[in-house]
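Quick one, T. Sequence first:
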Amino acid sequence: TIISRSERVRNALRSAQAAQGMTQSDVAKRMKVSQTQVSRWLSSPDNMTLGTFRVLCKVLGVSPSEIISIT
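Structure tokens:
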């Protein structure tokens, strides 16, 4: 099965979220955005800016390069 890069990034971000034991609401509070927005980003990572990606990675305790290298 071929998995798209977007799907691999999504899975890596969700794995990082789970490893931190954080809910989407927890992430949203740390990023000062709505839980709905975090859900959108995690469902479709292509829809976030590079700056948002960096902040999200920081909140999730991973480096952007770790996420990118998974792809």
